[in-house]
Amino acid sequence: MRDEDRLPDRQRWDQRYTSLEPERRTTPTPFVSACLPRLPSCGYALDVAAGAGRNSVALAKHGLQVDAIDVSWHGLHRAAALAARQHTTINPIVLDLARGWLPSRRYDVIVNSLFLMRELIPAIKAALSEGGWLVFETFTITQMEITPHRFNSHDRLLRPGELRQLFPDLSIIDYWEGVEDDRATARLLARFFV
Ligand SMILES: C[S@@+](CC[C@H](N)C(=O)[O-])C[C@H]1O[C@@H](n2cnc3c(N)ncnc32)[C@H](O)[C@@H]1O
Prior knowledge:
Number of helices: 7
CATH superfamily: Vaccinia Virus protein VP39
CATH architecture: 3-Layer(aba) Sandwich
Radius of gyration: 16 Å
Largest sheet: 7 strands, mixed
CATH class: Alpha Beta
Bound molecules: S-adenosylmethionine
């Protein structure tokens, strides 16, 4: 186990964001980018574990009012700075999602990128407005074979086929699972209809 893996989430990610070069992580992930044209261009969006804000800022530039939640103050500080550089704004919220709490608002779009906290899934589902869109992508356990040093347990990695089953009440628009550019991920675009 690396020394940094022994730290609580907040300290570990604060350290990473402090040393992240300014030009890194400034554009949305390819999946979020591909989903954007299908997403509404007004209303409220939530970026779960937003980090340095690459997806939050893309959502804000698309026209949405974005709550960007992360445990790392340093990450969100960078996110707010990135938004300002791109002439938009986001609403950064420093919060440990392990508390299982999300803002009480309903969201038209929720993005969860490269983060998995299974305990939070019911809260994410409950926070979607009727007709709301969920964009969810994260690593699968196959990633442990590709970069074994990067993850020290299976806890935060999806099992094969798991993401397809995590949101049984949503209508699946797109689903993909596989390896691309040495990244093993599953990706879901889905909507909530009552
Ligand atoms: C791999 S990064 C992904 C960041 C962003 N979603 C993206 O795609 O660029 C994982 C993020 O999860 C955040 N995180 C980890 N544990 C957390 C927790 N308990 N509560 C809130 N955020 C957490 C980290 O601070 C980090 O920003």
